[in-house]
Amino acid sequence: MTRKIGIYNLWINGGGGGEKKTCALAEHFSRRADVWLITGEEPSKAALESYFGIDLGRVRVFVPPRPVVTGIRRLAQSIPSSLRGPLQTEMWLKTLDRMAEPACYSSIKALGLDVFINCQWASLLPCPAPQGFYMCMFPHALKGSDNLGGAASFGQRARLRTSNRFLGMSRQVIDSYTAVTANSAFTSEWIQRMWHVPAPVVYSTGERMGPAMPKDKMILHVGRFVGVGRADDKHQATMLKTFRKLEDLHNDGWQLHFAGTILPGEDASRQASQLVSSARGLPVVFHFDEGFLKLRELYRRAAIYWHATGFGSSPADHPEKQEHFGVTTVEAMSAGAVPVVINSGGQREIVTHELDGFLWDDLDGLVAHTRRLAANAELSRRMSLQALLSSARFSTGAFLRRIEQLIEPSNSTASVENGEGVPPLK
Known about the structure:
By secondary structure, the protein is an alpha/beta fold. Helix content is about 40%, strand content about 15%. It has 18 helices and 12 strands. Strand 8, helix 12 and strand 9 form a beta-alpha-beta unit. It is globular.
């Protein structure tokens, strides 16, 4: 009998690593199982296929009925933008999405799934299948717990305690899953600390973007454009400010390229517009909402890859603001771009300093390492080759092999394309 597998992500149109992982799983398992992509709104399969370079032709879509959420969303979107002000409508609607998750349980359970894979950030949904895997990107606090993930100030802790009453993780939800997985050793450590459960590491899928092309004098960053102050801020403004100071590189023909989706909502659109305005007169290029083929071309042409998520915040005090893995860094390395990335979170598990890239602790380090690569073609060539070799540890095949090992541990011969060089589960 064909197995039925549900893969869950409410915000499938977000264009990030979690959505990439969701779609890769759906495509893979649809080759031999009945697969439902379970999401909060009807997605455009064609758009997802174009952006992520995947095939969802065999995948069914299920949108659980949520009449209250749908009604409130329509009402909120009908309010003139001038009246929304600081309410940050999209943020509140996503909070509502999470609060309404348990109400979706019965309709998802009615699908009769054999396996359920939860790829939703901070999900509160109990497992609706006999076998379930909660793929945690970073843990949120247990309901009623004072361990709030490192919030420092009294005001921050007070706000989080209030949120925790409604959006905290429950022991019942955790225990309903066969296993909780982590997208990095960094995340796994925090899951153990906050949820008190072991979490095997299943590194997120990094698409192979090579083969490398002859490199342009291009620095690339790929990441979503979000509103200022969000925990998942990619710090494009920080990188732009740093590049502005590198006049010697400007004069030598170097450019900085930003690529990524703009999240729904006015805050993200405003931030993107401000970045474009701030970059006028500089050799800076923006690529908003480009498809897979264009992104692959950018990766292949880029000589250097920048990443700054977590800048200005302590990993100990604010682990939620760090890059918990770093799919785009892996993808850049797979095309031979040398990573020059912040020394925190999951980036430290991807990049080996001075072997296949550079890790920096402050902006002076970012500048110094970038100048060193720009000035030394042989160093850049050598590190580019090593970056390409190192990226194989995080390929889509490696990711899928780990998932196979979890779902069917007795079937060590499960076929996964491009699964060579897979490190053991931690």
